[in-house]
């Protein structure tokens, strides 16, 4: 008879991923807040808008995996600061499109190099090949979890 597995939290991959993610996010959030007055959801929206241009809040939620309330709050804060503008969505009258303003783009252009420098510092002890392997493994984990969440995919 096989002995049943025992849950050990420190060896439980979902827990370790969450702890690692929270730790990295906390470091980055502190830097963004101190340097640019941005929280993590705001930074994610700014980055997606910089990469994709004008998109709806629904698309922002899908791209960042943040819930619609978090996206909405972040968007409102960015609009109030003049970093993002809202415009009617010609394809869906019930939604708006969000895009970076010139000031938002300038902020992104300042923040992006800092984000890359933080990433470099966090990954300094990993080789290029290890980072590539890690990214591949994270993608595979996300795909596998996605299949469990939606078995029809």
From TrEMBL:
Gene3D superfamilies: Winged helix-like DNA-binding domain superfamily/Winged helix DNA-binding domain. It comes from the Bacteria. Signal peptide: none annotated. The keyword DNA-binding applies. One of its GO terms (molecular function) is DNA-binding transcription factor activity. Residues 1-143 form the HTH marR-type domain. Keywords: DNA-binding, Transcription, Transcription regulation. This is MarR family transcriptional regulator.
